[in-house]
Structures are given as C-alpha cells and as structure tokens.
Amino acid sequence: MTVADATSGTGAPAVSERQARRAVTSSFVGTAIEWYDFFIYGTAAALIIGPQFFPSASAFAGTLAAFATFAVGFIARPIGGVVMGHFGDKIGRKSMLVLSLVLMGVATVGIGLLPNYEAIGVLAPILLVALRFLQGIGVGGEWGGAVLVATENAPPGKRGLYGAAPQMGVPAGVLAANLVFLLVTQLLPEEAFQSWGWRLPFLFSAVLVFVAMWIRLGVHESEEFTQVQRNEQVAKMPIVEVLTKNYRSVLLAAGTFIATNGIAYVFMVYVLNYGTEELGFDRSTMLTMLIVACPVWMAGMAFSAFKSDTWGRRRVYIIASVALLVTSAAFFPMIDTASIAVMQTAMIVLAFVLGCCAGPQSALFAELFPAHIRYSGASLGYQIGAILGGGLAPFMATFLYGTFGTTYAITGYFVLIALVSLGSILMLHETNTDARRADAGRAS
Fold it and tell me: What DSSP line would sit under 178-221, residue for residue?
C-alpha cells in the first residue's frame, strides 16, 4: 500500500470485517439520532414554534419567524463543519463525532426545557435562536465525520454502499422525529400538546444520545487516517489548504447538494405546514404520509449507492438529478389535488428520487479530497450546499406562496435549484476509480 493510496481517496488500507460493521452501524445510528434532534425542530417549527415563541405575530409572520429560526441552524453548520473538520483532520474522526453528539444532545434537551414567550418574554426567542445555533454547530461536524468513518472503513469496492449508511440516517431521523410527534399528537389532547406535550420529543433526545454514544465510543479510528498520522502528513491548517487548493471541488460539491437538500426540506418541513394550513388536513394525516415515504427514501439511497460502486458516482448522480428535475416540477401540482392517494404517490416518488440523489454523495464527497484534508473539504462542501439548499428552502417556500398565492412559484424555485445541481454534477469528474477502470476495460 502506497502513501498515495492512503491519501488520494482511491484506495484504503485493509480493515477487519468486524471493524467495518461497527463503523457502519455507528455511522447510521449516530447520524439518525443527530438528525432526529435536528428534524424535530423542523417539525415543531411547522406545527408549534410560532405561537409558543412569537405569539404577537400574525399566523403568516409567526410561521416565517419559526422557519427563520430553523434557518439559523443551517447558518451555524459550516462553522461546525470547519471547526470539527479542522480537528478531525488533525487528531481524528472519532473524537469529533463524540463531541458533535454531546453538543446536539445538550441543545435539543435545552429547547425542550426552554420557557416560552409568555413565561420570560423576549428572552425566550433569543435563547431559542442560541440553542438552534448550537444544534447547527453539532450537526455541522457530524456528517463529515460519519461519512469518513463509514467510507474509510469500507471493504474494497463497497465505498459507495457503506457511505450510504450516514445518508440513510437522515430519513431514519425524519422517520423517528415524525413518529414521535405523531404519537404525542395522537395521545395528548390539543390543549396538553400546546401547553407542554410538544416538549416531549426534545426531551426524549437525552435517551437516544446515550445510546448513540455507547455505540460510537466503541469505534476505532480509521486506518486511512492512522496512516496519514504515521506518515506525518497531517495538515497544519486543513481548511486553508482546502480553500487554496481544492476550492473548485468545494463549490461544485456544494452545488450538487443544493437541490437535493432544498427540495428535501420543503418535502419534510414546509409541506406539513402547507397541508394543515392551506389544504385543511389534520397534523396526523400529514405526518403519516411523510412517515410512509421515509422507508422508500432510504431504499433509493441504498439502491443508488450500490449502483455507484459499479456504474460510477457521477453517472448515477446525473441520472438521479435529471429525475429530480422532472419529479420536483410535478410535485406540488399533485399535492394541490388534495387527494390523499395522489399526494401520497407524489411524496413516495419524490422520496425515492431524493434518495437516489443522496446515495452516491458520501463516497463522491470523500473521494473528491485527499485523506489529510478530507474531513474539512467534505464537510465544507456539504454545509455550504445545506445553507443554500435546506436552510433557505422552507422560508423561501413560505415567502413565495405568501407573496404569489400559488404553489407554481415554489415549483419554479424547485426547477431552478434542480438545474443548478445538475449543472454542478456535470462539471465534476468521476471519482470512483474502480468504475473508471471498468469503463476503460470495456472500451479496449
């Protein structure tokens, strides 16, 4: 094994099967729990945060304010990605993953215990924003570390498939968050939910974080990073090297993620509000439709990640991005039929396509950067895309519908960001060397 193999992203030292299984399990479980924490805020923003923390605003303004605080978490994410990426590239992936769990757990439980506007006045939304910012710091460092633990410990030829584990943690977190909210809304009277019941999903996070911590502490540092340390190739300032030598990869990686993330957050967050406020469905109906779509979303991730190990990351991503352009254009016209069967079909199809876009992403982002700056590079690309995508999307959807009074404005926004992401992936090179060799063999 050469030094180039350890640092280029095209090869990796051998890893035991047991360590690989533990690493991929840790990535999935830890990421699912972190995203559960992050997403329960999104669900709460659509259902309850406005009247609890911005009661003096109109319903429309309160929803905008709630989604604006939702976006604060995304603004913090690149900071978490840069800081944890720096130390993840210098001292190791594992320690940063543990830190991200602690930050997320503290912030989420803190929101569950936070007095509302009626109790402490303007201090309530200020503290809410601060805790949401801390959530963003935690999740900002999570994705890059979880992806690297999974991909750097993957067996040969399975980097794409193993990299799907932290990606699948995202819809698993959505599924868990919405199941918990569904249970709370079903089991509690409306008055109890409004008064204190909405806090229960946040407080439940404490139990989940302890479970994830137990699993994550048993994971070894990746052999690929250990070899970087052994060969004294640790970067002094990883983020500086990323920004000076790999900025094109960062920008294109971010561009590929804008549509996947932006459309997904409208799908997960805004549609809950739209379905209840504009179409007249109850919370349980909208939550149930989202819950049904989540396993299909995960299936799309697994399928496309598996195919990316043989077809190539870029090829799979292009096909999925074209499909996303088409399905996102049809999504809101189908939702606006107000037919549960048609709405459920729209959500299932979009979920599968979103999953197909996300499946190859972990391996693609990891392979774009050499091992000694990989945590910083992959995290920064992902989090910039997250700000421009999911951070803005629920706010933009609310604003566009409130301004134009039609979901065609949201559809136009979907098409625009889908074209940006498709253009970005077309400008990237293939990163899967196994797929490149296979194509070369067929050509010869």
Answer: HHHHHHHHHHS-HHHHHHTGGGHHHHTHHHHHHHHHHHHTTPPP
Asked whether residue 37 is domain-assigned, the answer is yes
* pTM tops 0.90: no
CA separation for the pair 150, 329 (Å, rounded): 34
Q: Quote the number of domains for the chain.
A: 1
**Of 333, 238, 336, nearest in space to 280 by CA:** 336
What 341-344 contacts at long range (C-beta under 8 Å, 24+ apart), as own/partner pairs, is 343/275, 343/289, 344/289, 344/292, 344/293
C-alpha count within 13 angstroms, C-beta hemisphere, residue 243: 9
Let me know if residue 137 belongs to a domain. yes
Alpha carbons 35 and 257: distance in angstroms, whole number: 17
**Residue numbers of the domain that contains 113:** 18-220+238-437
52, HSE (Cβ side, Cα atoms, 13 Å): 26
Q: How many CB atoms lie within 10 A of CB 126?
A: 12
Residue 3 lies in a domain: no
The answer to whether position 231 is within a domain reads no
- The pLDDT tens digits for 17-76 are 777 777 888 888 878 887 787 777 777 776 677 777 777 665 666 666 666 776 777 778
Q: How far apart are CA 204 and CA 42, in angstroms?
A: 16
For 225-278, the pLDDT digits (tens) are 888 778 777 878 888 899 899 999 999 999 999 999 999 989 887 888 899 889
* One-letter identity of residue 219: V
The CATH number of whichever domain residue 25 belongs to comes to 1.20.1250.20
Handedness of CA 260, 266, 272, 274 (dihedral sign): negative
187 close to 284: Cβ distance less than 8 angstroms: no
Residue 198 has pLDDT above 90, yes or no: no
Task: Output the six-digit token pair for 350.
Answer: 């979009």
Model confidence over 281-304: pLDDT tens digits? 988 898 899 889 989 999 999 999
